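Cross-check.
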Amino acid sequence: MATAAPPSPAQIRESLPEVSRAAAKLREEVSRRIVGLEETVEQVLIAILSEHHALLEGVPGLAKTLLVSTVAGLLDCEFRRIQFTPDLMPSDVTGSEVLVQDATGKREFRFLPGPIFAHVILADEINRTPPKTQAALMEAMEERSVTSLGVRRALERPFFVLATQNPIEQHGTYPLPAAQLDRFMLKIRLGYPTREDEARIVRLTTTSNAPPPLEPVVSRAGLLGFQTAVAHVDVRAELLRYAVDLVRASRPKEASAPSTVRDYVAWGAGPRAAQALIAGAKARALLRGRAAPDFDDVRALVPAVFRHRLIVSYAAEADGVTVDDVSRALLDAVPYPGRRAAAKAASPISRFFRWLVSAPPPSP
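Predicted model, tokenized:
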């Protein structure tokens, strides 16, 4: 079967007005249903256009489900919500084989597809289900397929999973291992709305029960075309090197690691982080009407890309240093063309922990 030729740079530039108009219209339609969350909407769109998945963390009541279902409707995609619970089985997600009998009395096994067979999946509270069910979802995310009784079934494109976690209640949960967290492109963190936005939310939700009807802004075929255009956006060599330098500097044993990383990071980010930075930067550039990404696109995505990939040490907890603090230090420390690195001294507590780890054991 002949494959379609990738879009040329000229074709990508010609598609920019269409992508920009669609993005602006989508933001406008989302704002009719959801107050605020402009940055969150952009990050969700970046993940979708990059054909990656995202992890959303926020307290209950911040419109996570409404956001994902609204975006799915505007993109002409089928939406399914899966509530992850301790008793959820892998077949509840992927589907199962059932024995059926036809009119002639003949019996056969028939596959009944599970809710994963949709285009946009909301995996609600993914850390409340056991690892074997989490692993079934991870196969679908990574392979774009599910396996039942040895038969592999492909999932229809586009396919996007947005998983949520509640940062408040951790009792009885099954935290995702680092290897599974790494498969999410972004970890998007939702905070409380501002006072003005919260007043608008209360006003809008207590005066009418019927949300505005949704009309698709982009067809499914159009979305696939946008994803293809994003995948073939050209990236300058120095921008790619900058993304790689940021990721390598997050590893405490690297010579390029700044003092903040050496003091506070136990494990740095892997190669998927650099892939996410470049793929996300390309999508962000197209959403903003540019044919090629720049350094600001990469820098804007660093917190969301590193948030679930860096593992901080006990020294960081003692000093109250978060992963986002480390990300900001990396942005200050790693130079790129036209900008020099900034130096920052380590705190007394972190210096003590470093001395404690490196000091030789006492002689008997």
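The longest strand covers residues 95-101. The chain has a mean pLDDT of 82. Passed to J.P. for a second look.
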